[in-house]
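Review box. Two proteins, two foldings.
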Amino acid sequence: MKKYIFIFIFSIVTTVVGQESKYYFGISYGKSFPIGDFAADDINNSKSGFAEGGNKLDFFAGSTLSLKLNFTITFRYQHFAPDIDQLATELETSDEATYSVETSDAWKIYSLLTGIEYKINLGRKFSIYPRIGMGPMLVTNPGVSITDTDEDSNTRMHRHSETGLGLGYELGIGLKRDLGKNFCLMPTFTFSGGFVTISDVDTTIDHVGTTSDYIPKIITFNLGLSLAYKF
C-alpha cells in the first residue's frame, strides 16, 4: 500500500502544466480497489462480490472544448480475482466442517466512458482536472463454489459465471506533467462503478438453488501512472 501512496504523492509534487495542446491520447496502467459490497465476503449478502484488489488498463484520448474544458473518452479494462478463501476458513470454524474452494474466471469489467474535465489552476505551474464520465459497461462475474467435503461433497455455496451489460461511470481528478514538447504524464485518481444486471445467474446457498438476476454493486477506487502524446 505504501508504494501506491508514494505514486499519489509523487504525481502531485511533480505535476506542472506546460503549453496546452488541442488533442492528446495515451495509455494508463494501475491498481483498482473494490469498495463496499463489491469487496464484501458475507455469504448471506446477495450483493457480496468477493472481489480482491485488481488491476486496470486504460486507453484514453481528449480534445480541447474551451480554455477550461476538455472532452475525454476512456476505454477501461479491470480485472479482479475472487477472494473466498477467508470465507471458507470462517465457515469451517463456525460449522466445524472442511470445505473445498473453487473459482472459475474472475471479475472482468469493460467500460467505454465519455465525459469532460475542467482545468483549475492552483498556481503558476500546477493545475488539477476534476473529471466525470459515463458510458456502457460489460461485466462478467466469476464462478464461485464452496463444497463441504465431509458430507459427500454437499454444496454450501455455488454461483455460476455470466455476463451482463449496464451503465458505467467515473468521478475523480487528473494531473499533468510535461515531458518535453509532445509527451506528458497524466495520472488520474478516480472512483468508478456501474449499474449492471447480470441475467439468469444460478445460485445455491445451503442446498437451496435459485435462478435470478444478479445486480452487483460495483464501486472501485483506481490509481496509476499514464503516458500521453499531445498534438
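Next protein.
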Amino acid sequence: MKMIGWTILVSIVSSVTTYLFMKYKTLENIILNLTDFTQEDIQKLKGLIRWKF
C-alpha cells in the first residue's frame, strides 16, 4: 500500500513539472512567473550556484 502512495506522488510531481516546462519553457521563466523573484535575484542565485559547485 505504501508503494502505491509513493507511485501516485511521483506521478503527480512528474505531471506538474512537465506541465510547467511546457507552459513556461525554462526553469528561469517558471521561477519568475510563480514567485516574486526578479531577474537580478536569479542572476545572484546563478552566481552562488556556480561558486559552490
